[in-house]
Design goal:
Elements (H helix, E strand, L loop, with lengths): L5 E7 L7 H20 L4 E7 L4 H10 L4 H12 L2 E9 L2 E2 L1 H8 L10 E8 L7 H12 L3 E2 L4 E4 L14 H16 L21 H4 L7
Parallel strand pairs: 1-2, 1-3, 3-5, 5-6, 5-7
Antiparallel strand pairs: 3-4
Helix pairs in contact: 1-6
């Protein structure tokens, strides 16, 4: 239907409350929603899933093979979404175990072709390679379509507007949200990008990156 709502689902693996991981998920979803609303006339629905609330259900499902209702609804929301935002805090230079466990319980073909924006939070900028060495290969393995721009937010990035040589966090959020919106809307060009994808945006096969998941 022409007026059927477009659905954006953001998955946050933050454990604390309040959580910078949840905050980043909210801001990325808002950026994508704003761009979609500005460029087409269909309503846009946003749902944020906090994995901290599903931790026990995820563990039970891994043991029993049967997802409790809340987990089943979250899985259905992710697989039915028009676009997905996946945000994890960094643990030992990779995504968190809770984040990985959630995507382990989703069928490995359920995200085929789905536009996905990956993002991460951490205490220091030196862990930003988690996006390229862990998260992007994970979703390539799941056959999702990962947008060119990924977003990493270190502690010092919050409140920073950038300078003449670097983009601040708000700019990167707008860029990535716009790219996700462009993919959701079906445009062949990613509307949020201010540069053409280059070699740094190439998706590296999952198997080739396994050895890099614990980089420090």
């Amino acid at each position: 239907m022409q007026n059927e709502a477009l659905k954006i689902v953001a998955v946050s693996a933050g454990l604390s409350q309040p959580s910078s991981t949840r905050l980043l998920a909210d801001r990325l979803a808002a950026a994508a929603r704003e761009r979609l609303a500005a460029e087409q006339d269909r309503p846009v629905e946003v749902r944020v899933i906090d994995l901290r609330d599903l931790a026990v259900d995820i563990a039970n499902h891994l043991v029993t093979g049967f997802p409790p209702r809340a987990l089943s609804e979250a899985i259905d929301a992710v697989t039915a979404a028009d676009g997905l935002i996946a945000v994890s805090p960094v643990f030992t230079a990779s995504y968190s175990g809770l984040f990985k466990s959630f995507f382990d319980v989703i069928d490995n073909t359920a995200l085929t072709g789905k536009p996905v924006l990956v993002a991460a939070t951490g205490g220091t900028g030196r862990h930003s390679l988690v996006l390229e060495h862990a998260m992007r290969p994970l979703f390539a393995y799941l056959r999702a379509t990962v947008v060119p721009t990924s977003v990493y937010a270190a502690s010092e990035d919050w409140g920073s507007s950038g300078d003449e040589y670097t983009e601040g966090l708000p700019s990167r959020i707008r860029r990535a949200g716009g790219e996700l919106a462009g993919m959701i809307a079906g445009g062949r060009a990613v509307s949020g990008a201010s540069r053409a994808p280059g070699l740094d945006d190439e998706v590296v096969p999952f198997e080739q990156q396994l050895a890099d998941l614990r980089l420090d």
